[in-house]
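Q: Got a minute? One more chain.
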Amino acid sequence: MAVASQGTHDLLADAIASLTLWKSSPFFVQISGCTPVPNDPLHSHIARRGLSGLIIEPVFARYQQLVQQSQEMPLVKAVHASISGIDGQRPLWFFNAEAFSRGILPPHLATVITFAQESLLADISVLGRATAEETARDLLASLLDQTMVRAVRLDTLFREQGVRQVDILRFDSDGYGLDILNAFDFKRARPAVIHYRHEGLSLADRRTAAELLMAQGYRVAIQGEDTIALRDGQAIVSAQTPSLLVMATRLLAEGRTADALNMADHLVMLNPEQAEPLALRARCHQSLGNLVEALEDFIRVRDLTGSLTDHLPFVSAVLDQVLPRVATLFSECGFEELARYVVPVTTLLPDHAPFLEVATRTMVLLNRETEATRCAQLLLPLRPDNELCLHLLTTKSRNERDWPTFRRLVTALARKANSIVEPQVRQLLILELLNLLICPGRPEPEDQRLVDEMTGITSQLAASHVPDGNAEKDAWVAHFDAVSRGIRLAEELGPVPTGTAVAPARLMTARGLPITPAGLQAKAKELSAQTVLLVAADERYFRRYARLFVLSALRNLDVPALIIVHVIGGAARMRELVDVIGIDDDRLILTGDDFDPSQVTTTCIADPQTPIPNLPVAHFQSVRFEQADYLLHALNLPVFVADIDCLLLRGVGDLLHRMQGTDVVFNCNDFARMVCSLLTANLLLIAPTETGRAFSGFLRQYLSLALSRPTVSRWIDQIGLLLVRNHVQTVVPTASIDYFATESDINNIVYRQLISPDRYRFFALYQKFYLPSLAPLIRSWEQDLSLSPSTLPWGWE
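A: Always. Here it is, folded:
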C-alpha cells in the first residue's frame, strides 16, 4: 500500500472508466478549484460517463458560472459555500481592482483568490524592484479586499443536500487539503476514487494525507501535482489480459465497437503501463468518431513505447479526419469543441502551422491565455510575423519579467506595417518598452537610437489615427502621443542649460511686509539658514493646504531654514494670502507671480482614467521647479521642493548630513516603474553644486519648452524629472544622484489616515486621505508653537 509515482497517463480517467464498469452513475463531490469546463479533469466524464454530483465553490463569480453551465448537466448541482471544520462564515481574500488599474501588481494576480491571507502577502517580488519588506507588505496589505463566504461542515452539507454515498471525491487543496480529508467521515462514505491537487500542501502535510488514506485502505499514487487514491480492488492487474485483448479486437472487427470500447476501457484501467490496450482503445474511439480520445490514447502509446511507427496508418487516418473537422468547426464558430483538439493535435503535429494558427486564435477567442500562449510558442518560429503570437508572447515575457524577450517582441510589433491592432494598444506596448529603456538611467547609444525610433512610431500612429467616435480610444492615443513627445523633447537640451530663472513678481514676509530679492538673501544670512523648503500652488490649493504645511514645517524643522510658499497667480493678493496662513514667523516667506490661466493656449492631456479640471494643471505643477532654480542660484542653499499637500513630520538635519556630496535626490516610486511616474514630483532635493545648478537649469528649460507647445502631458513634471536626470548623467558623468528612502523619508503608499507620526519624514496626503483625522495633530502643533487655535477648513469641526 505504499505511495507510488506514476507516469504521464491519466490515472483519474482510468479510475473513473473502471468505476463505471460496475456502477452506472457514480456520484461525485468536488470542492473548489474546478468548474465544468473543458480543462477541468472531471468535465469529459460528467457528460460522457453520466456522473451526478455536487460542486462546492466559494468564489461567487465562479459559482454563478457553474450554475449557468450546470443547466446543461441536470445531474450536477452547484453549491456556494466553503468547507470548514465548523459551520459559520470565513473571509475570502483577493487584491482589489485599484492594484491593477494603477499598475502596482502584474495582471495575472487579478485571478488569485484564497482563504490564506498570508499567502498574498508572502511574495513581495510581485511589486517589482527590491523594496523594504515591511513597506512592501504594508502596500500589499493596503491592496487587499475580502468577502465573507458561508463555511459549512461536510456532514452538514451532505445532510442538507441528501447525499448518502460519495463515489468520487475531488478537490484542490489551496493549503487546506489535509483539513478536508480530516473532516471527511470515511465510516459514512468510502469513495472509490479520491483525487486532489497537493501543490498547496507542505511536504509534511502531503505525507500525512497519504498515510491517512492508506490507513483507510486506499492505494495512493502521485502524478505530477496531483494525488489519486483508489480503494483496494479498484486497480488489480488481471491475469486474463491477453485473452481479453484478443476478444476485444475480435469485437471491433465484427463491428461491435461499443462492446469493444467497454472492454478496452477496462483493460486500460487494469494495465495502465501497457501500450496494446491503449492502441486498441484508440482504434475503437476512431471507429465511433471520438477523434480527440483516439489521439489522446495514441499519444500515451507513444509516451510508453517512444514511437508510433507500428500505428502510423491508424494515426494518419485519425489526423486526416481531424484537420477537415477543425476547419469546419472554426468556420462555424464551434470553438468549444475545436479546443478539445488543440492539445492532442499540437502534441502530434507541433510544426503544422495552419493548425497552430487556428488553435491560437481559438484559444484567444475562448479567453484561455495559457493554452493560447503555448500554441503561439510553437507557431512563432514558423510564422515570425504573426501578430497574434507576438502579442501573446509579449504578455508572457512581461509576466515572467523576461525583459530581453519583451524588448525583442515589442520592437517587432512596433515595426510591423499594416497592423490590425488598435493604435493605442501598440502605443501602450511601445511605452512599456520605453519604460525599460529610460527608467533605469542614461540609455546606452544603441538604446537611445531605439528610444528615438519608438517615439517616432508612436507619433506616427497618433498622426495617422482617424477618430471614429470612440472617445476613450481617442484619449488614449492622445495621451501616449503626449508622453512620447515629452520624451523626444529631451533631444533639444544641449551641453549647458539656456536662459535664467527670474525672481518672483512679489515677495512678502509673514507679517505682510514687502521684501526684495536682496532682502530675501539677507534674511537667509540673518537666520543662518541651512536649507530652503519650497512649495507652490494655485490659490485654491493654497487656501486648502498652506497653513497645514507651514505648521508642520515650523513645528518639526531641526535646522535653520527658510520656508517659501509660492502662490501661482497670487501676486496681486499677497497681503490677503498672508492672513490665510495667519502665522508670524521670520522663517516664512510668501512669493507670487502674475500667471493668468486664461492666457494659456496649451492643451493639457492625460489618460482617460485621470480627469483634468478646466485648469492648466501642467503649468501649475511646473512653476515650483522654475522657482527652485531661482532660489538655488539666489541663496546658494539646498532646496527641498515638495507638494503643498505634504507634511513635514521629522527634522531634515540628518538627511542633509547623509546627502552631503550628492547633487540631486529624487523620490523614486518603485511600485510604478513608468516614464510618467517613476520619479514622483512630490519631493525633490537639489544641492547648490555645479551639477545641482545644471540639473535645475535643464529642468527649467525642459519644462519651459514643453509648456510652449500646443499640447503637453499632464505628467510633464515627472517626465521632465526622469529625462533631465538622464541628460545630466550624460553631460556630467560624475553627477552624484541619490534617492529618498521610501520606507522612512517619504511615503509612496496611499494612506487614508496618518498611522504613525514618527514613521515618515515627509508625509504625502494624496487625494484619498481623510483630512479631518489630522485635527488633533494640528491642535498639538499650534499649542507647541504658542499659536491660537485656527478655524479648521473643510468642515473638520
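A: DSSP finds 30 helices and 24 strands in the chain.
Q: Perfect, thanks.
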